Amino acid sequence: MDIRNLSPFISVSPQITPEDVGVAASKGFKTIICNRPDNESEDQINSEAIRLAAEENGLAFEHLPVLSGQITDADVTEFQSLIKKVQGPILAYCRTGTRSCTLWALAEAHFTPPKAILNIAQQAGYDLNGQLSRLEERNQQPHSTSKRSIYHSVVIVGGGAGGQAVAASLLKRQPSLDIAIIEPNQAHYYQPGWTLVGGGVFEREQTKRAMSSVMPKQATWYQTALSQFIPEQQQVVLENGDILGYQSLVVATGLKLDWDAIPGLRESLGKNGVTSNYRFDLAPYTWKLVQSLKSGTALFTQPPMPIKCAGAPQKAMYLSCDEWHRSDVLKDISVEFCTAGAALFGVKDYVPALEKYVEKYNISLAFQNKLVKVDGPNQQATFEVTDVEGNIKEVVKSFDMLHVCPPQTAPDVIASSSIADTAGWVDVSPETLQHKRYGNIFAVGDVSNSPNAKTAAAVRKQAPVVAENIISTLAGSPPTAVYEGYGSCPLTVERGKIVLAEFGYGGKLQPTLPQWLVNGTQPSRLAWFLKEKMLPWIYWDLMLKGKEWLAAPKHLTHKPEPQSAPEACDFKEKKK
């Protein structure tokens, strides 16, 4: 069977047989389109036989016959409408595949430069140079948008950890790849370091670099924000109105810290004892409060999941308590951990070690306590407290120091788009990180709905998977690199010691180093060394430069089934 890929959404082929339909189904195609009139030749297998085979294999079938050498604008319009309404991936066929490829090219010409279309067709084995003038004419015609699109092979939305790591991993594999990165910010932050800023270990400026210093020189940087996704046309719209077309799209926007979800919080931050290590400008204030507090009440809050780095609220608490313990004032400070959750930590293997520190620091645990209001001037915090029977009541707590982890959601531009699930996150396969409906879209980092911990360590393992799967889909092959849900949370239980939580899907432990070297379930000085000295270097000099040390992707031993569960597949290490 001779399948030729034009994009992850559509492929073309010469005449197929009923037996080929089963092969197409096994490769993940959802719809077959026949562009060949019946009875065009004596040896032809007519459309009805292919339709029956498609029905037997659970595929949709559409018949849009066009005459060889006589493709009309009406044919192209009908083809455009057809591919918008059917489920992809699509396999279109005719006698040689040329008519199907031509229909695609002319339909695409409104949105993609003719040169790019001709190159894609050439790579698939079709010479469409004879259509150049028609492609150029259609490219100049007005369509649904007011500006012509600029085309790139890969567009990455977001220049944070995920976007930069994927770009670096892509360029490592294919240095000449045409990549665009959409990122409005001029600074790039090492956010895992903000916990140590709030604990007096790092200076704030150690966690910040100019965006231009981490942006790949080979990439085109669009210094603006995104305003709209148009996945049906393989386009995104920028805030300035420009339109970018793509073959493959990577969504790496991160998540939204919703400071306004809690009345009174935003206006209280940075004063009245209210702080958060989740903001670059506030982490030093956390350390200032810790040093100045000699007695009173310190509250540390955690909202409902999901949040980035689920251990971060506790890290701030333990480092604060350790400093108060060293200063011999902890006995005069009441410390309370107010979490909307029902457990101290989501992976039970690490809970015993954490409980020992809770006991050591005499911390009160307030489960199912959700922060709903902050009164900064009066230093009061209001919580919704849920009891064991599900009853909810409001409780007001006074504080001298309040460290807040804000509620977190998907960015508005994601949540309002067709690439989001019902909760607003990008809807991807948890294994391949490929979108469940749009095969040329991938997500990396906090914005996806894959059920892993949202940490920079997760991004380090996800980026090579996404890069490898993009290269595969651009070449017309299915994605086979897989992500097993790895996340890491170095829980800073005291200055100089860390409980190094490393786990994947389902809470399965995934330690990087042998247990005799670092037992992640117990506090370790070596783990602190890794956090303080090694991880920043790994981030800046390895991860953001495509050096995948201890992060090489694993691969499926068989072709993936759509939306298959993480535990359903066998894995093997990539051969180097």
**Structural classification:** alpha/beta
**Roughly what fraction of the amino acids lie in strands?**
15-25%
What separation lies between the terminal Cα atoms?
A: 30 Å
How many runs of DSSP E, i.e. beta strands?
29
What's the main sheet like? 7 strands, mixed
Number of helices: 16
**Rg on CA atoms, Å:** 27 Å
The number of domains is: 3
Helix content: 25-40%
The CATH topology name of the largest domain reads FAD/NAD(P)-binding domain
Shape annotation: elongated
Keywords: FAD, Flavoprotein, Oxidoreductase, Quinone, Transit peptide
Cofactor: FAD
GO molecular function: FAD binding; hydrolase activity; quinone binding; sulfide:quinone oxidoreductase activity
Region (Disordered): 557-576
Your description of this structure?
With 576 residues, the chain is of the alpha/beta class. The chain has 3 domains: 140 residues, Protein tyrosine phosphatase superfamily (Protein-Tyrosine Phosphatase, Chain A); 269 residues, FAD/NAD(P)-binding domain (3-Layer(bba) Sandwich); 147 residues, FAD/NAD(P)-binding domain (3-Layer(bba) Sandwich), CATH 3.50.50.60. The chain is 28% helix and 23% strand. The chain is built from 16 helices and 29 strands. The strands form 8 sheets. Strands 6, 7, 10, 11, 12, 13 and 24 form a 7-stranded mixed β-sheet that branches. A 5-stranded mixed β-sheet has the order 1-2-5-3-4, sandwiched between helices. Strand 6, helix 7 and strand 7 form a beta-alpha-beta unit. It starts with a strand and ends with a strand. The C terminus is likely disordered. One of its GO terms (biological process) is sulfide oxidation, using sulfide:quinone oxidoreductase. Keywords: FAD, Flavoprotein, Oxidoreductase, Quinone, Transit peptide. Its cofactor is FAD.
